[in-house]
C-alpha cells in the first residue's frame, strides 16, 4: 500500500481506487468480507440509494389492554409509593405489545403493533416515560419500524413525543407523534389512544 501511495496518482489510478472503494462499500452492505483498513469515511448518500427526504403521516389507534385473560400490557415493576391522589404510583412500569388498528374499535383492521414500555416517572403528576417501537404490517411498510422515546403526561389532551429513529423504509427517520386519549376505563385501566405520526424519512 505505502509503495502504491508514493507514485503519482493518475486520473486512471484514481478511478480504480474509487471503484475499489465503492465495491468495498457494496460488499459491506451485502454483509460480505471487507478490508479492515478504513474506520470511517464520508459517503455519498446516493451510494446508499437514498432518495429525497419525504414527510409521511399515519393515523391509527393504540390499545393498551390491562384487564382480562389476555392483557397486552402487563405490570412488570410495582410501585412501592402510595399516593392516592395519583392514578399510577411513582415507578410503576409496564411492558406492552399493543395492537395498532385503523379505527378506534380494537377489532378493526390491524395495521401494526406498538411494542415498548412505559414507566410513571413523575412524583407529583401523571407523566410517563415511554420507549416504544411501532412495527408496521401494511403493504410497503410491512416490517419497518419507527422508534418513539419521550414524555407522556397522559391526562393532557394532546401529548407530543419525539421520533428518534426508524428501520426499513423509515431509515434516518425523525419527527414526532401526537397522542390523544380516545377512551380510558377507570375501572379496568384499559385505554385506547389515537396516534398521529409525522415522520420524515427517505
Ligand atoms: C402526591 O401527589 C400530589 C399531587 O397529585 C403531590 O402534591 C404530593 O406531594 C404527592 N405526595 C407524595 C408523598 O409523593
Ligand atoms: C408482512 O410480512 C410478513 C413476514 O414477512 C408476512 O408473513 C405477511 O404476510 C406480510 N403482510 C402483508 C400484509 O403484506
From TrEMBL:
One of its GO terms (cellular component) is apoplast. GO terms for biological process: phenylpropanoid biosynthetic process. InterPro entries: Allene_oxi_cyc_Dirigent, Dirigent. The keyword Lyase does not apply. The keyword Plastid does not apply. It is found in: Secreted, Extracellular space, Apoplast. Residues 1-30 form the signal peptide. Homodimer. Dirigent proteins impart stereoselectivity on the phenoxy radical-coupling reaction, yielding optically active lignans from two molecules of coniferyl alcohol in the biosynthesis of lignans, flavonolignans, and alkaloids and thus plays a central role in plant secondary metabolism. Belongs to the plant dirigent protein family. This is Dirigent protein.
Amino acid at each position: 500500500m505505502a509503495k502504491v501511495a508514493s507514485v503519482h496518482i493518475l486520473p486512471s489510478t484514481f478511478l480504480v481506487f474509487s471503484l475499489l472503494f465503492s465495491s468495498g462499500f457494496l460488499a459491506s452492505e451485502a454483509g460480505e468480507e471487507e478490508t479492515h483498513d478504513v474506520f470511517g469515511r464520508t459517503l455519498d448518500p446516493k451510494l446508499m440509494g437514498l432518495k429525497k427526504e419525504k414527510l409521511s403521516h399515519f393515523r391509527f389507534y393504540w390499545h393498551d389492554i390491562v384487564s382480562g385473560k389476555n392483557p397486552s400490557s402487563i405490570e412488570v415493576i410495582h410501585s412501592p409509593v402510595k399516593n392516592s391522589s395519583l392514578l399510577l404510583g411513582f415507578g410503576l412500569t409496564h411492558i406492552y405489545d399493543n395492537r395498532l388498528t385503523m379505527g378506534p374499535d380494537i377489532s378493526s383492521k390491524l395495521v401494526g403493533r406498538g411494542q415498548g414500555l412505559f414507566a410513571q416517572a413523575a412524583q407529583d403528576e401523571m407523566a410517563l416515560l415511554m420507549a416504544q417501537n411501532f412495527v408496521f404490517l401494511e403493504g410497503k411498510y410491512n416490517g419497518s419500524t419507527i422508534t418513539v422515546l419521550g414524555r407522556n403526561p397522559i391526562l393532557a389532551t394532546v401529548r407530543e413525543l419525539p421520533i428518534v429513529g426508524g428501520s426499513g423504509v423509515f431509515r434516518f427517520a425523525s419527527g414526532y407523534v401526537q397522542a390523544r386519549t380516545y377512551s380510558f376505563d377507570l375501572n379496568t385501566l384499559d385505554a385506547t389512544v389515537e396516534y398521529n405520526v409525522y415522520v420524515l424519512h427517505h
